[in-house]
Amino acid sequence: MKRIVIMMVVVGIAVALIGCGGDQESSEERASSAEADSTDTVTTASIVNTAEGFIDAAGADGTWIIATTEDLTIDEEILVAGEFTRNDELYRKIALYAQDSERNITDSYTVSAPRLIVQSPNTRIESGTFRGDVFVEAEGFHLRNATVDGDVTFASAALEESFEIDEDSEITGTVEVDG
Fold first, then answer.
1. Could you tell me the sign of the dihedral formed by the alpha carbons of 80, 81, 84, 90, in that order?
2. Residue 29 is assigned to a structural domain of this protein
3. Could you write out the DSSP letters of every residue in 40-97?
4. 43 assigned to some structural domain
5. Which of 131, 96, 129, 93 minimizes the C-alpha distance to 113?
6. Whole domain around residue 142: which residue ranges?
7. Could you tell me how far CA 147 lies from the centroid of its own chain?
């Protein structure tokens, strides 16, 4: 029974992410390209429910959006790397939530790891909790309806200045610039 419920959640998220025409993010908008040398690669959402799947999706050969379907505990650092685009803008999203077909958030998840290293420009953590420290090495990191249960450290003052956090987000630890 649990397996059926999980499969229904995965299918529901996939349908919501792929969506039907007329919503805020059409399927064409969700597709993105990563530039590796001079070759463009089109990617779509990566729906994950394992530590290995999350790590792979976050890597340079992963996808523009990493959407988990349950709480995950990862015993190693997570590297969010690579350049991905959506609507011709550099963008990366870590979606820690489930939503229904009308984009209402139905559940939030926690991903726990010792450290999340953000090297992808314009990476956003949305609607869930990352439990661990975050080290930011790229511009445009932001939190939207999300919690970082740990410290956030920026590699430079310029990266901290490009950081955005909405009123529904929080950081339980310190926010500082390295060095």
1. positive
2. no
3. EEEE--EEE-SHHHHHHHHSTTS-SEEEESS-EE-SS-EEE-S-BEETTEE-EEEE-E
4. no
5. 131
6. 2-18+48-177
7. 13
DSSP conformation letters of 135-171: EE-STT-EEES-EEES-EEESSHHHHHT-EE-TT-EE
User: What total number of domains does the chain contain?
Assistant: 1
Query: pTM (2 decimals)?
Result: 0.76
The series of mean pLDDT values per 10 residues for the chain, 179 residues long, is 47 47 38 35 71 96 94 98 91 96 96 98 98 98 98 98 98 94
Task: List, in order, residues 6 or more apart from 49 with CB less than 8 Å away.
Answer: 6, 10, 68, 69, 70, 72
CA angle 125, 131, 136 (to 5 degrees): 50
Q: Within a domain: residue 90?
A: yes
Q: Amino acid identity, residue 10?
A: V
Q: Count the alpha carbons within 13 Å of 150 in the hemisphere toward its beta carbon.
A: 17
Helix or strand run (H / E) with residue 125 = strand 123-126
